[in-house]
Amino acid sequence: MFNLSRRQLLRIGAAAVPSLSAWTWLTPRKARAGIGGARACVWLWLNGGPSHIDTFDPKPGTMQGGPFRSVKTRAKGMDLSEHLPALAGVADRFSVIRSMTSREGNHERARYLVHSGYAPNPTVQHPSLGAWIGQELQRDESELPPFVSLGGPSMGAGFLGVQHGPFVVRPGQAPDNVELPPMVDPGRFERRRQLLASLESSFAAETGDLKVRARRAVYDNAVKVMRSTQLAALQVDDEPQRVRDGYGDHDFGRGCLVARRLIEAGVPFVEVTLDGWDTHKDNFERTKKLMTVLDAGASSLFRELSERRLLDTTVVVVAGEFGRTPTINANDGRDHHPKAWSVLLGGGGVRGGIVHGRTSADGSDVVEKPVGVPDLFATLATLLQIDPNKTVVTPSGRPISLTDNGKPIRELIET
């Protein structure tokens, strides 16, 4: 006869619930009511920090501009790199902010800033934008997580709790462990769930541990996803070949296609990662290849969301953690440069075809209409009908708002 403690039984019970990859999910909340406006956001995350000069803010013909030419777009006065021709063809559906600026030139700190809207602070773990939006815009009837990360881990939910973090999956593939394990039929599985719930309730009553509630929300919603009829949204096999070819035969393209399918299924926040932009070496050849991938996936996403009448209610963001230096180093690369960088922003009530802000002739400094990350967050919150100043009290009793005193960019918001 084994003598097991309650803690040991809890661990056994938890192991009986199949894991769903590296994901967590929140308890459903009713989406904000409103007339018009965006109801979802897709962030195409360019991990590593893309060179603004070689992508969205080209400087051809200058010493620092590099070998790439620029091309005109469907938007008057907006030129893009010659290696973004498909995006140039849909430029009337988005705007470019060329005056982003921050002080964070370290990858880890900059990723934290651009995901949360706050500079890192050892006294508080801020939620990511995906966690905020998922919490605010989750629909009661949805069977899928409200915050999905495709191709990258994204950032967690901080003081909002682990149950608000991202559901991380590989683009175009079903999550792991959605089927019951061998020798466990539905009845046995349900009995295990009930035993686990009973043990956790006793543990919570004895200890007062608030984390139990968050963990139970994760388990309950994991089971909801396992039984969901919407899981097919995470795969692309049933899409016509011409559609898949348009997005591109790579994880990023599949991620953009899955993002469209998830938006159709009612998921409010999707992040798709395209890695490799940390181009300290061989910047131009590497950036050229990355732009080819970005161009296919992003332009197809804009086009299909528009054709399916989803673009007006979906904000699309294309950005990484900072820009890169005008100076070309000895390794034919560009280094970190947070003083001036670009963000592409479209759909969801964004006025298309606008170039907001300006950098100096060499791209080193913002010289017109500077925009901080909190301002970008305030703009996104406003488009999504969320109060940018909405404040939550952390478990330690500290009030934290969605944005760090950010101001919406009114020029970019349709009225």
Structural class call reads alpha/beta
> How many domains in all?
1
What share of the residues lie within helices? 25-40%
Quickly give the CATH architecture.
3-Layer(aba) Sandwich
Tags for this model:
two-stranded antiparallel ribbon; 10 helices; 415 residues; alpha/beta; Alkaline Phosphatase, subunit A; 8-stranded mixed sheet
What features would you describe in this structure?
The chain is an alpha/beta fold and 415 residues long. It has a single domain (6-412), classed as 3-Layer(aba) Sandwich (Alkaline Phosphatase, subunit A), CATH 3.40.720. The chain contains ten helices and 16 strands. It has an eight-stranded mixed β-sheet, with helices on both faces. A two-stranded antiparallel sheet has the order 2-3. Strands 9-10 form a two-stranded antiparallel sheet. Strand 15 (391-393) and strand 16 (399-401) form a beta hairpin. Helix 1 packs antiparallel against helix 5 (186-207) and helix 8 (251-264) runs parallel beside helix 9. The radius of gyration is 22 Å and the shape is globular. Residues 1-36 have low confidence and may be disordered.
Itemize the secondary structure elements and their pairings.
Blueprint (H helix, E strand, L loop, with lengths): L5 H10 L24 E7 L23 E3 L6 E3 L3 H4 L5 E7 L6 H10 L12 H9 L9 E4 L16 E3 L16 H22 L3 H16 L14 H7 L3 H14 L4 E6 L8 H25 L6 E6 L3 E2 L11 E2 L3 E6 L8 E2 L1 E2 L6 E3 L4 H11 L7 E3 L5 E3 L14
Parallel strand pairs: 1-7, 1-8, 4-12, 5-6, 5-7
Antiparallel strand pairs: 2-3, 4-11, 8-11, 9-10, 13-14, 15-16
